[in-house]
From TrEMBL:
It holds the Pfam family PCMT. CDD domains: AdoMet_MTases. Its EC number is 2.1.1.77. InterPro entries: PCMT, SAM-dependent_MTases_sf. This is Protein-L-isoaspartate O-methyltransferase. Keywords: Cytoplasm, Methyltransferase, S-adenosyl-L-methionine, Transferase. One of its GO terms (molecular function) is methyltransferase activity. One of its GO terms (biological process) is methylation. Belongs to the methyltransferase superfamily. L-isoaspartyl/D-aspartyl protein methyltransferase family. It is found in: Cytoplasm.
Length: 299
C-alpha cells in the first residue's frame, strides 16, 4: 500500500520551500492538509510518456499512482482523456491555492464553482466557507456523480449540479464568490449577474492565466487584474488549438537561417511571456531545455 502520509509531507515541504503557500491566505495550507488529494482521485490516472497518455492504475501500481497524485507543486494529475487529450485533472496544488488566495474567500460566503472535476477544489472551498455554502457545477454527468461521491466520502457538505457552467446557477444566487476551474475566452455575463456587488470572480482566461474581478456596486461591470500565467483546460466545446501543420505547412521550408537570439527569455521571463500572450493570443509558446541550451517553438 502506498505511503500517502510521506507523499503528502514531501509535497507540503516542497510548497513551503518554494514559497508557494499564500501568506495572505494561510488557511489554504491547513485546508489542503485536512483534504487529501488522493481521496478525490479516480483509480486510473494518465501520464504523458512523450508519445501518448498511458494509464496508471491504483490497484496495479499504487506507489506510482500515489506519486502521480502527489507530484511536484506545479504538476497536475490527469484524470480523464478525451479524443487523446486531457479533459479533466486534479489541478496542480500551487495554482489551486493561488486561485483560492485571489478569491479572498471568507467563512460564511456563498460560493459558486464552475467545473467540479474530482470535487477536490469544492472541498477546499467548503472547508473555508462552511457546510452548505458551496454549489459546484459540472457539465459531465459522470464527473458530477463522482465529484459528489468524493465530497460525501470526505464529509464535505457541498452541492454538485450536473449543468453547464456558462449559465451559472441562478437558483443559488446571489453569490459572494464565483470561481471557475476551466479557461474561458470571455467571462460569461451570467457570472457577473449572479455575483453580488463587491463580490469577486476568479477564472482562468484564455491561455494567459487567471484573472480576479470585483463586481461594481452598480452591478453593471466587473474589473480586476491578471494573477498568474498558468494555462488551464478550456471550456467544453472550445475549438482545438492549431497544430504545427497549420503554421508550417507540410513541405520543406522556403527559408532557413540560424536564430541567434537567446531563447532563455521565452522560458524564464514572465513579463515577456505575458506581453506575447496579450499581443499574440493565438500563438502558443513552448520551450524545452537540454544540457546547454533552450529550444523554443511558436505554434
Amino acid at each position: 500500500m502506498a505511503d500517502y502520509d510521506a507523499s503528502r509531507k514531501r509535497l507540503d515541504e516542497a510548497m513551503d520551500q518554494h514559497g508557494l503557500w499564500p501568506a495572505r491566505s494561510p488557511w489554504t495550507r491547513q485546508a489542503v492538509a485536512d483534504t487529501p488529494r488522493h481521496a478525490f482521485a479516480p483509480d486510473q490516472l494518465w501520464r504523458w510518456d512523450g508519445h501518448t497518455y498511458q494509464p496508471i492504475d491504483r490497484s496495479a501500481d499504487p506507489d506510482r499512482w500515489a506519486a502521480e497524485v502527489y507530484g511536484r507543486p506545479h504538476d497536475a494529475a490527469v484524470t480523464r482523456i478525451t479524443d487523446g487529450a486531457p479533459s479533466s485533472s486534479l489541478s496542480c496544488p500551487s495554482i489551486v491555492v493561488d486561485m483560492l488566495d485571489s478569491l479572498m474567500l471568507e467563512p460564511g460566503h456563498r460560493g459558486l464553482e464552475l467545473g467540479a472535476g474530482t470535487g477536490w477544489n469544492a472541498a477546499l472551498l467548503t472547508w473555508r466557507a462552511g457546510p452548505g455554502q458551496v454549489v459546484s457545477l459540472e457539465v459531465d454527468d459522470e464527473l458530477a456523480r463522482q465529484a459528489k461521491e468524493h465530497l460525501d466520502g470526505a464529509g464535505a457538505d457541498a452541492a454538485v449540479v450536473a449543468a453547464d457552467g456558462a449559465g451559472g446557477w441562478p437558483p443559488g444566487a446571489p453569490y459572494d464568490r464565483v470561481i471557475s476551474t476551466y479557461a474561458v475566452d470571455q467571462v460569461p455575463w451570467a457570472w457577473v449577474e449572479q455575483t453580488r456587488p463587491g463580490g469577486r470572480i476568479v477564472t482562468p482566461w484564455g491561455r494567459l492565466g487567471h484573472v480576479a474581478l470585483t463586481v461594481a456596486e452598480d452591478h453593471r461591470s466587473a474589473v480586476g487584474w491578471m494573477q498568474g500565467l498558468a494555462t488551464f483546460m478550456p471550456a467544453r466545446g472550445t475549438p482545438p488549438a492549431s497544430s504545427w501543420p497549420h503554421v508550417r505547412g507540410t513541405g520543406p521550408a522556403d527559408d532557413e537561417r540560424p536564430f541567434a537570439r537567446d531563447l532563455h527569455a521565452l522560458k524564464d521571463d514572465a513579463h515577456l511571456i505575458f506581453a506575447l500572450r496579450i499581443h499574440l493570443p493565438d500563438v502558443q509558446i513552448s520551450t524545452g531545455m537540454d544540457d546547454d541550451s533552450v529550444a523554443g517553438g511558436l505554434n
